[in-house]
# Entry
Amino acid sequence: MDNKSRNLEEEFQARIDAGENIEAKDWMPEKYRKTHIRQISQHAHSEVVGMLPEGNWITRAPSLRRKVALLAKVQDEAGHGLYLYSAAETLGISRDELMEQLNSGKAKYSSIFNYPSLTWADMGAIGWLVDGAAIINQVMLTKTSYGPYARAMVRICKEESFHQRQGYEIMLTLCNGTEAQKAMAQDALNRWWWPSLMMFGPRDEESPHTEQSMKWKIKRKTNDELRQQFIDQTVPQADLLGLTIPDKDLKWNDERGSYDFGPIDWEEFWNVVKGNGLCNRKRLKARNEAWDNGKWVRDAAVAYAEKQAERKVSKAG
Amino acid sequence: MKKEWPIWEIFIRSKNGLEHRHVGSLHAADAEMAIQNARDVYTRRQEGVSVWVVESKHITASNPEKSGELFEPAKDKVYRHPTFYNLPDEVKHM
# Structure
């Protein structure tokens, strides 16, 4: 590294240390740019793929009230994907490239969406647990150092709190219902609990990016800190529902002021990341079909816009 | 045909009496579609009463590397602020 770029890097780090935000046209180390493109686009892809397990239940929602709420939630997720893609594009990658990375399987998205949504109770569990975990991560990211990403997060967090509340309300209604309904809620919790804990990513000592991400204030808390925060806030919510968290090692630790919990099956996690989860192939297929089937619409819109522009010119001439 | 829709910057007036503020960007084939998409993306919770859309390529931004020479000259001109002037406490309404 020559002296000039070393100085630039030092200046850049000094700005981060002083709590300044970095904006799109500011100088930044290439690795900072690349890390952000990777992280923001993964986040965007997660919002987009995240629509699939819930979209599965829109037509089968048990009442109109539940249906409009679920529809609004899924629509929000499309919007969140868009805010995030826009933030990624400020770093010099195009939307088409981002789509290509998702559709080809080159880019990752949150593994949680590779699990199937089998019953209506899954809509409750996803809102409560999956959105709950996402919110913890996203609240942290409102303070992230890259301005466009931080601003997208502020907007997303504002909209997302209804997502978790609607999920918890579904769980609450099922838990106050018949035996069978409560059993369905418990079954959903059993299936979504561990994958939700995995959403925070590998343990700190196994997470190669954490140190640099903390230094650049991309992340303000480590995976393990966020996971613990999620467990501590969620266990009392499960108690309130009268449901049992599927972890026999879970118990309050007075000394730490936190819950101790059992070992996470990281083999399962890596297996799903590598593409061998229950729904990986199905999700990618759905995305590719949506992209391919939408092609004529995208092309027609461009053709129409060009024709209109030409007409304007010929009229003016 | 392979063409990406252009990017538009979106500005929303949250209510009459306030200015339009930049809220983000989106892709659209033309201005009309940009307004419709902005309505769907940025005003789902009554965030606005008016939308401006500007194709991003029409915006000229100042260069961050020149921000020193552009903005620093204002730094030492404290006499442009009311607190620079010393007046006795007895002076009211000033």
